[in-house]
Protein 1
Amino acid sequence: MAVSCWACCHTWAYTMSDISIDTLFQLTVLSPLDGRYATQTKPLRYWLSEAAFMRHRVTVEVYWLIALSHAGLPGIPDFSIPSEQFLLQLVEKFSLHDAARIKEIERVTNHDVKAVEYWLKESIKGQPELEHTNEFIHFACTSEDINNTAYALMLQGAREHVIQPALRAVHQRLIVLAHVHAKQSMLSRTHGQPASPTTLGKEIANVANRISYAIDRISSVSLLGKMNGAVGNFNAHLSAYPNFDWEGFARDFVQTRLGLTFNSYTTQIEPHDYIAELFDALARANTILLDLDRDLWGYISLGYFRQKINSEEIGSSTMPHKVNPIDFENSEGNLGLANAMLRHLADKLPVSRWQRDLSDSTVLRSIGLVFGYSLLAYDSLLRGLNKLEVNPNRINEDLNSCWEVLAEPVQTVMRRYKVENSYEQLKNLTRGKGITRDRLDAFISALEIPIEAKVQLLSMTPASYVGKAVELAQRID
């Protein structure tokens, strides 16, 4: 047997006994999200795959048909309980076999939404009540009525069941680390240079607070839907039933039945502004975590952290000693890929020529990729966070070699007691120079300030000069 590769004239030869179907698939797909990283991205397939898109289209079509049957419109009776249950079972038991059948129909129609409609008509054969009203399947709908609501439901499921839990897992791990290391003093670095000390826990708490806010922004984006026909005016609806409140009916359907927010003003397509807003929010969260990846990479390089070792793993093919920060590097790379696509989608989707063009349709099919790269990054980051072991000796060594960072509190206390040229005196003593504890103590001892102020300054060390850092780290939640 053979599997197609490169082009139609190139194939990989194999026998079924040699390679499992799963392995074969992972080795030959184009995207690593479905190959190398298939296990990590698996939860998204239920929500964002092609089969998931079909399932959600079927959901909207079935719910629309049921809603029409309850509307009291002439020509379509209120369905009996068995008929309604039959329709709902098409949604609840939708399978990959059903998706494959829709795909077969699409090969003939060359229209994906029409293929769903024909599959539904095919599926209700043998149900007299439903067959009698089969022309009300997809009634007055344009394809985008089905697609826009299906995408909104897909985004809702992926956000609530996959992405948000993954982000919250990272957030919770950061909170734990902030609490555990709240009291571990650490030299800060501004512009890469030694600066006023902080604590390791406080620096982690900073990120936890940022990502908490970002998660809230992602959660707060309302997911919109429209069911108003070919150009957004209910033209077809009113041609068939001119005295019916179609706008009220559509609003109730979108909000009550689908759990989305109704958009009254659209062209043929829902304008996707909310998707851009959601993707902007997700990109912002990703940027915060990318910043964390780079900082942790740097702290590992400084020796502030060690990484838990798996004896079976290899860090370098030639340097046996290596323990590389690969989880943070993988996370950073995948966050970059995710954000590049998120920002393109956020810029592209709200733009459509006149009442619509198909450029949005083709890029919307890639939303699984942006969520996939994001999820993969969160998984790598969390794995890296769980491997971190603090090296307090190295952190304290850095602190104890930078007594010059106490120039800030010394000159500030001098200012309090109106010592002239306080800042300038400390600048001359310390700027661009290392300074020993003894030399700093001698300077403090010679100051004309109250004795209690001298005692306070003389008792201070780089490790103790952390302000409210411990308290701030301990209260993050």
Note: The two ends are 57 Å apart (CA to CA).
Protein 2
Amino acid sequence: MSAAAGGFQSGPQSARLLGLGGASTAYTRDIAVMYYNPGAIGLLDSLLHVSVGGMGTARMSSFVGTDSRRQTRQELQPQPSGYFYAASRVAPKVSVGLSINQPFGYKTVWPGDWEGRSVVQEARLATVYVQPTVAYQINDNFSVGAGFIYAYGDLRQSRALGQYDNRSTQALFEGSGNGYGANIGLYGRTADNLSFGISFRTPVTLKMDNGKATYSGVPAIDAGRFPTSAGFRTDIELPSTLSVGLADRMTKNLLVTFDFNLTSWSRYDSLNFELDNASRVTSGRRYEDAMAFRVGAEYTATPTLTLRAGLSYDETPVRDEYITADLPDANLIGGSLGLSLAIKPNLLLDMGYSYSRGGERRARVNIAREAISSIDGTYRTAVHTAAVGVSYSFGGRASRATQQ
């Protein structure tokens, strides 16, 4: 699947790139690079390359209440995901490809009786990006590419209505929608051993116009404010990402990669549900733009075995005063390991694992900020990710485990 990054971004989007810590903008040994830099597939050969895989991410947070001193842990709810990539050269200078992956999402489930149940009990967002891509080889060293993005997402949030004594009084919001965007990139080689990549993926707005709000256990006197069922609409603002990467073959068997990413999380200002009965449920977010730094290394141990390792630092976009229990994010420092094994000359098995840990975050309730749903206390977060995939080249043979 994919490793969690700052905010609710999930990436990288393949088992190989997971092992590299996500440093992939200038990495051309995996066609999954078309999601990060569509220009990089412009130098493909004429074979049809296919990569498919998946598994899951487990994001685990704990909370200690300031007043209660009671510790609560999230329920373990791994979020499964998967990816599919295919690409080939179709003309002397033109390559095309298709990617299907899940770049944004989270899943948070707290125990039903925890002290923040009126803030959130369950929160989930899942997205799918479908990106047809075309790339053009300018010359032997440079290529450019662009992809059209169709995005689909679905949202689910539930919480208790804490103003009532009945703990079974609940509010549930469910909706789905789609949006569109684009992805452009440039790939270049300045020497036999050095390459670089630059890419920009545009923001996407998921318009959810068919949402459904369900209230249960509400006293009859408040049925007008909290109807049993009502439609709602909302927009989910997914950010743009600017990426710059380098890849350096330091020795015959060792490749080192580096990535810098800037993500426009400031688009995610609030999460608002506009109900059919003219009421509005507002939750402030006020995210900030955030940076990430990634370094990866790939070592060809034998003609059939390639080993990978990576380090990453993801800056959180969540301000201290806007920490919420649905996604108590933090600055994450992570490490990853991976390998590729050539089962056959044209068939590779890819595996990767990463672990990230965030620092302690203190949430404080400010009664002057009514739009912020929070509870006073301290969060700690850790993320485990595992991925397994296979890569196959039709019509020819890959000469070593590091090639498609």
Note: Residues 1 and 81 are 5 Å apart (CA to CA).
